Amino acid sequence: MNFEPIGIIHNGYKEKFGIPRQPGLATSMVSTIELLSEYSQEEVVRGLEGCSHIWLIFIFSACVDKGWSPTVRPPRFGGNQRMGVLATRSPFRPNPIGLSAVKLEKIETDSGKVILTVSGADLLDQTPVLDIKPYIPYSDSLPDAHCHYAQGYDPLSLPVKFTPESLRFCEQVEKRSGLALIKQIIEILRCDPRPAYQRSAEREYGIRLHDYNIRWSIDDKEAIHVLAVEECED
């Protein structure tokens, strides 16, 4: 079986660290899916505009050369407990395939190109998309389903405090580009990207979002602190 991508996703997630661990947690992050030339036809997506959400089937392209293991250490358990790889959503799988439900914002067909705009995706920029399917609520939503180690998700409710310099920089970026950078930073940091075994208030972290480096820390008793936002040098 040989599968070829039908599209490529474009967004501000330039590295794995910082991407929400599940879809739908950072809804302000907008992504576009560019269908590749063979599939970039209006007929291919006819009727899809009537769907509010879609499934993306994709390749964990950053992990394809990393191999796989029968057991992995899920971040939810702080890396201290092993589980079978098929009992997790680890990207290090026998076949590095991912599945995410996202909100379909719009479809554009112009100049021989088909582009889908979605929100809430948890895919790395430039991820190859293998297939797109409609999300069908009556069959895909299972209210009685459960997973013993992932019963729910509670984002951090801490206030997000920007230094004056970082806030001023973000406001300039938003004015210049129209990017909702402040809202995106707040949503992503409230998802708490920190590894469960690194929860020190003194520790600083960095993520790359779009073309910007964000330095931040979290004091679990006080606030999430955005220490600096700067343009990437490369």
Automatic annotation (TrEMBL):
This is tRNA (N6-threonylcarbamoyladenosine(37)-N6)-methyltransferase TrmO. The keyword Glycoprotein does not apply. Belongs to the tRNA methyltransferase O family. It comes from Neptunomonas concharum. One of its GO terms (molecular function) is methyltransferase activity. GO terms for biological process: methylation. It comes from the Bacteria. Keywords: Methyltransferase, S-adenosyl-L-methionine, Transferase. InterPro entries: TrmO-like_N, TrmO_C, YaeB-like, YaeB-like_sf, YaeB_N_sf. NCBIfam families: tRNA_TsaA. PANTHER family: TRNA (ADENINE(37)-N6)-METHYLTRANSFERASE (PTHR12818:SF0). Residues 3-144 form the TsaA-like domain.
